[in-house]
Every structure is written in C-alpha cells, then in structure tokens.
Give the backbone structure.
Amino acid sequence: MSDITLIGFEILDPAEIARIQEIIAKRLKKLKINYTLLKISLKEHKHSTRINHEVKADLFITKGKSIFAQATEDNLYKALDQLMEKINSEINHKLMK
C-alpha cells in the first residue's frame, strides 16, 4: 500500500490539509508509478510582509530508489504544483531511460 506523510502541515486548517491531500493523490495517480512512501515537509519563512512556503519531498519507489524534490513559493498551492512537476520530471529523467 502506498502512503503519503505530511510533515509541518499541522499549522494549516484541517480542511486545507484534506484539500492538499486530494491534490497530491490526484497528481500521484497521473504519474503511474509504484511507490511505497511519499514524505512532504512544509516550512514557512516569514519575510517582512510575505510568507514563503518551502516544500520538500522524498518519493520512495518500490524499485529501491528514491526521488527528492523541493520548491519555494509565496503561494502554497503553486509550491506544491512545482514540487509535483519536479517529481514528474525526475521520474522521467531517472527511471524512464
């Protein structure tokens, strides 16, 4: 069974966490890859009037490989989108040769 672990997301509203989990699950289905665990961590960096959302991910693949990606954006959803795009790119680069 594949698992998704979110670290640092407890600062968000539970409804927002549920929405994020849905978005991530949909993006993972599109990747069409077997994985055992996806760990995503969130850190917020406050800079004067704005907040940067830094997201990092480790995708553990059943073939004994893992993929790391990270993204930082003012908008959390943009950061997650960039993160998932980077994971997709890494999968295509490393595993689909």
